[in-house]
Write a structure and sequence with these properties.
single chain; about 500 residues; mainly beta; seven-stranded antiparallel β-sheet; about 0% helix; about 55% strand; globular
């Protein structure tokens, strides 16, 4: 990364990571760097020839055979050197790196055939280390009370420097959301009811505090895994009403887990609406405090916990930004509820006393009209104020689903993200079709202290302008500042921009 002189110095080809029975290696799904070691996460794939026939021609189905962690020595970045790899059953779910230990979570679905009762390797997740595939020992498998599906979550702890396995823990039942604190890893799995033909539903056996009877046609089961430097152990399990938005809907502080969910109400066996709630669990994952209804008939859109304060955005017609006092785990209290049009899909602390929101604008009836960026004054966390809002001429952003897509430089007041906009023609073409078009752009904004200013907009789909991006297929775009230059990384290029003028000073085509 040398400004206008930036250039590609090396290429790592993962195709050679295939095992003896594997057909090919899939695309890289994540990267981790610890010191001079690069960890490349990818999958191996095997051919599935069942059902193949002459009529299939050259087509053959493939399925992931396992998740690989390949280690490379990058002490000389121009000559990355492959060292070794570990593999575990399943497909990539999440990865965390802390204190030199890589915590890797995969989802393993039991095969539909080939299971032999006397061969655990055929139905128990396994780990490949030193060339040998070994099933997870029975003592490291947790079977929860909700295990109604033949799916495991497999968590491994890997010493990156030694490239060795420290611990493993399998949880039967799978998980949809992963959150990790300094000392615990949480797996959350949403459970959904089966509706009868007459529309009746049997609620899960969970009581909503302050309400008579049983409520909640969906629940989330949570498992707490103690990390202990890699010696993984299931320490507790519990259940809350509703389902999680993402990992930011969970947060651990002072031994308590705070969770925000959207939960479905049922009455007389019929679905009767949705509410958003906040729940506080102790270390045994027992409920100690809650706010069952932050907002009735509104769903959770974004969450950010910040110490003793929780910020939750819900939406139906307007955007209530709730500030919740969490100092007493047994009695969380809503201190303020700021109602403005639209809703924030992502919240990011922006230095002392500020909270950034990226999301959608909406009219008085709740109809989404486009994107917006907002800054909130949270210097008094129990009296939140909106300082400024800027409308963005776009329909969506990847930030809504992946926080890594947001570029936030608090020191320089910079905010960046990619957007998409769909445009439909008002009149039909010669064939009678109404044509539509999509524009892909990267927006870079500056927070002045009192408002937002748009610094530049890069057209990601126009190969003749600032940068070339793959917009069909992998449309992932990332922004990063290095020194006095800003880099836009896409699937096939890196664009280099000079801070201040925001003029493109170079493009590195990846290949």
């Amino acid at each position: 990364t040398q400004g206008a002189a930036s250039h590609q110095v090396a290429t790592i080809d993962v195709a050679g990571l295939t095992g003896a029975d594997e057909l090919l290696t899939g695309p890289v799904v994540d990267l981790m760097i610890d010191g001079t070691t690069l960890v490349v996460l990818t999958h191996g794939f095997t051919a599935q020839t069942v059902g193949w026939s002459r009529g299939s021609g050259t087509w053959a189905n493939v399925s992931a055979s396992g998740l690989k962690a390949a280690f490379y020595d990058i002490s000389d970045p121009t000559r990355p050197r492959y060292v070794s790899q570990l593999e575990q059953s399943g497909t990539y779910a999440a990865a965390r790196l802390s204190g030199g230990v890589l915590y890797l979570v995969s989802t393993y679905m039991l095969p539909s055939s080939g299971i032999a009762a006397d061969q655990p390797i055929t139905y128990v997740p396994s780990v490949v280390a030193g060339g040998a595939r070994v099933p997870v020992p029975a003592g490291d498998i947790y079977v929860g009370p909700w295990s109604g599906q033949p799916t495991y979550s497999l968590v491994t702890a890997i010493d990156v420097a030694k490239r060795s396995l420290l611990g493993e823990q399998a949880v039967l039942g799978g998980s949809g959301t992963v959150y990790m604190s300094e000392t615990n890893l949480y797996l959350a799995s949403a459970q959904w009811p089966v509706y009868a033909a007459d529309g009746m539903v049997e609620p899960f056996d969970i009581t909503i505090p302050g309400y008579d009877g049983k409520y909640g046609s969906s629940v989330t089961d949570i498992v707490r895994i103690s990390l202990d430097g890699g010696a993984l152990t299931v320490a507790a399990s519990g259940r809350v009403a509703g389902y999680l938005l993402n990992q930011f809907a969970m947060d651990e502080a002072a031994g308590y887990l705070r969770v925000a969910t959207t939960w479905d109400q049922t009455g007389n066996g019929m679905w009767s609406g949705q509410s958003s709630g906040l729940w506080i669990l102790d270390s045994s994952l027992a409920l100690v405090g809650s706010i069952p209804e932050l907002a009735e008939n509104e769903t959770v859109q974004s969450v950010r916990f910040d110490g003793t304060v929780g910020y939750v955005v819900t939406f139906r017609r307007t955007d209530p930004l709730f500030a919740v006092d969490l100092r007493d785990p047994a009695a969380p209290t809503v201190q303020s509820a700021l109602k403005i049009p639209g809703f924030s899909q992502y919240l990011h602390p922006f230095g002392d006393g500020l909270l950034l929101g990226v999301g959608m604008d909406a009219d008085a009836n709740g109809k989404v009209t486009g994107m917006k960026v907002a800054m909130f004054d949270v210097s008094d966390p129990y009296n939140v104020r909106e300082i400024s809002t800027t409308l963005i001429d776009a329909d969506s952003t990847e930030v809504a689903n992946d926080h890594k897509a947001a570029f936030v430089d608090v020191d320089r007041g910079l905010i960046g993200f990619a957007t998409q906009k769909w445009t439909n023609s008002d009149t039909p073409n010669d064939q009678g079709w109404y044509e539509s078009s999509t524009s892909w752009d990267y927006r870079l904004l500056h927070w002045t202290g009192s408002g937002f200013e748009e610094l530049t907009t890069v057209n990601l789909a126009d190969g003749t302008s600032q940068v070339v991006a793959t917009v069909m297929g992998d449309g992932t775009v990332r922004g990063v500042r290095v020194g006095e230059d800003f880099y836009l990384v896409t699937a096939n290029s890196v664009g280099v921009y000079e801070l201040g003028t925001y003029a493109r000073v170079g493009t590195v085509t990846l290949g």
